[in-house]
Amino acid sequence: MFKTITPDWSNFLNKLNQSKLSDLNYENFLNWPVIRHTMFVCDSNYHSIELEHLKKINDWQRWESAIQESPVGNPKRSRLYPASSENLVHHAYHLSFFENSTKLKINEFDTVLEFGGGYGSMCRLFRNLNYNKDYYIYDIPEFLDLQKNYLSKLNFNCNYLSGDDLNKFDFKGKKLFIATWSLSETPKDLIDETLEKVKDFDAFLISFHKDYSNGDNVKYFNDFALKNKDVSFELTPISFLPNNYYFIGKKTIKDSI
User: Fold this and answer.
1) Contacts by 40-46 with C-beta closer than 8 Å and gap 24+?
2) For residue 2, is it within any domain?
3) What is the pLDDT of residues 20-61, one digit of tens each?
4) The pLDDT of residue 213
5) Interior CA angle at 233 toward 189 and 246, to 5°?
6) % of the chain exceeding 70 in pLDDT
7) Domains: count for the chain
């Protein structure tokens, strides 16, 4: 059995468990230092870039509604756009980039599988965008606990997977795989197994840092693209985040979307 988390994330997990003891109802969990450090963007130097991008696209009204922040967890609000948070805008930017790159809308998919769901914010954004189909999060139990707590308070449904659950499911219909910085921060054996499971998905939204614990991630994902010719992948540097990349793909065969 291979490891499911890296040493860094094992350390973060210990800090998470300590934070839970001081805030049993999770009323202020989005201000826990470990959450701020690992999964809640705030006080960034690129927030204005992402926000202005959203405001300038043709369907801004759609995003404007979807990025209204919830008080659950007491999130820090955006200084530039107090109705939202930097983190929610950050996630909306990812989805907007994906839709623009692939010319696909998220509601075209029957199933979404997110690898590493943070505290549930991306799932929340999908529900805010009126995505009412099957959404799965694969994560370790401690983070699933965060996600269940957060999404249940918002009355959003989600399917939660952990351990070897990926091997028990046959995901149906047109499928989207999402992994924003999570996959590349995972032990390589688990990355390999996960990508083998999802290689037949219809579209991919992956982002990663070039040199996290697994070495050269650019080479790794380029090699994955070369082995999967039925999917057209595009590797794009994120201009305002040096050494970080989007890896976006969609099927090109005739029976794809």
Assistant:
1) 40/75, 40/76, 40/85, 40/87, 40/119, 41/86, 41/87, 41/90, 42/76, 42/85, 42/86, 42/87, 43/86, 44/86, 44/90, 45/240, 46/240, 46/241
2) no
3) 999 989 999 999 999 999 999 999 999 999 999 999 999 999
4) 64
5) 75
6) 96
7) 1
Q: What is the mean pLDDT of the chain?
A: 94
Cβ-in-10-Å burial (0-12, 13-18, 19+) of 59 comes to exposed
Q: Is residue 256 part of a domain?
A: no
Check which CATH number belongs to the domain holding 127 and give it. Answer: 3.40.50.150
Average pLDDT over residues 193-208: 97
Are residues 30 and 119 in contact, defined by beta-carbon separation less than 8 angstroms?
A: yes
What CA–CA distance (Å, rounded) separates 206 from 232?
A: 13
Q: Model-level pTM? A: 0.95
Residue spans of alpha helices (H) in the chain = 7-22, 33-38, 47-56, 60-66, 86-102, 121-128, 141-153, 188-198, 217-227
Judge whether 1 lies within some domain: no
Extract the tokens encoding 230.
């039925």
- Range of the structural domain that residue 179 is part of: 7-251
| Res. 169 pLDDT band, cuts 50 70 90 | confident
Q: Which helix (H) or strand (E) holds 80?
A: none
Tell whether 207 is covered by a domain. yes
Q: What is the pLDDT of residue 144?
A: 97
